[in-house]
Amino acid sequence: MDHISIVLVRPQQPGNIGLAARALANHGITKLALVQPQGFDADRARWMAPKAHDIINNARFCTSIQEAVEGAVRVVATSARPRRWDRPVWTPQEAAENAFTGPTPTAFVFGPEDAGLSTEDLMACHGIMSFPTVHVRSLNLGQAVTVTCANLLAAQEAAAPAVPEEEVDTAPAAFQEELVQDSIRALKSAGYLRGRSEVQVHGTLYRLLGRAQPTMDEAARLRGMVKQLLWWFKEPRS
After folding, report:
1. pLDDT per residue over 191-215, tens digit each?
2. Are strands 127-129 and 89-90 parallel, antiparallel or unpaired?
3. Nearest to residue 77, comparing CAs of 87, 67, 85, 62?
4. Which pTM does this prediction carry?
5. Which residues are registered as beta bridge partners of 217?
6. Where are the domains of the chain?
7. Which fold has domain 4-158?
8. What DSSP letter does each residue of the chain carry, written as one string?
9. 77-116: b or e for each residue (b if 16 or more CB lie within 10 Å)?
10. In the sheet that 4-9 helps form, which strands lie side by side, from edge to edge?
11. Arithmetic mean of pLDDT over the chain
């Protein structure tokens, strides 16, 4: 489970942080990141997390999702709401199984209790995990983390123990985002974004990189090509 991290974005209730920490400990996951927790009370969180105090004590406090998912190759968001632009949608079982193909360093991102993740938050994510529900679509934050962790443990136990033939240095999500931002600037300079949504183009490029999982060398070469285009656009032409 060393390649798995759980990210709570702007959590509002210390009790839910404690419940999430307990779920991590129950299922063998150790990495917890908190993005701008609201009114964080460590004692209240620990009270809801018996035998999981080390998870809370070692949690990373971050100012942004990008900081929290640094080092992850695949970033999965949890959301029950339909969106204007596409992201692949996985069940908890599918998302957990994807995390053990490789295995791939994966961050699971959960939104605040009252509103969930915003559209801007989702721009840092490659896909959406949606929980099967009936009438009431949203889950309690602690419940959602527990269901996710349980599926991850099941996927770990089901995964073949074979060792990969060759370890691949896949470009982390942070570098993928930098490559996309450079590409957006180049497309803007070329006039491609006139009449097009920058958000949709960003999503298309980011999803493409998420599926392709380029190596760090490949991503660096692509970024070099884009930077050359940016330089070309800035140079005066006769």
Report:
1. 888 888 888 889 889 888 888 888 8
2. parallel
3. 87
4. 0.72
5. none
6. 4-158, 173-234
7. Alpha/beta knot (3.40.1280)
8. -TTEEEEEES---HHHHHHHHHHHHHTT--EEEEES-TT--HHHHHHT-TT-HHHHHTPEEESSHHHHTTT-SEEEEE--S--SS---EE-HHHHHHHHTTTTPPEEEEE--TTT---HHHHTT-SEEE----SS-----HHHHHHHHHHHHHHHHHHS--PPPSS---BPPHHHHHHHHHHHHHHHHHHTTTTTS-HHHHHHHHHHHHHHH--BHHHHHHHHHHHHHHHHHHHS---
9. bbbeeeeeeebeebebbbbbbbbbebbbbbbbbbbbbeeb
10. 60-62, 31-35, 4-9, 106-110, 74-78, 127-129, 89-90
11. 85
> Tokens 């060393």 identify what position?
2
| Cβ 110 vs Cβ 149: under 8 Å | no
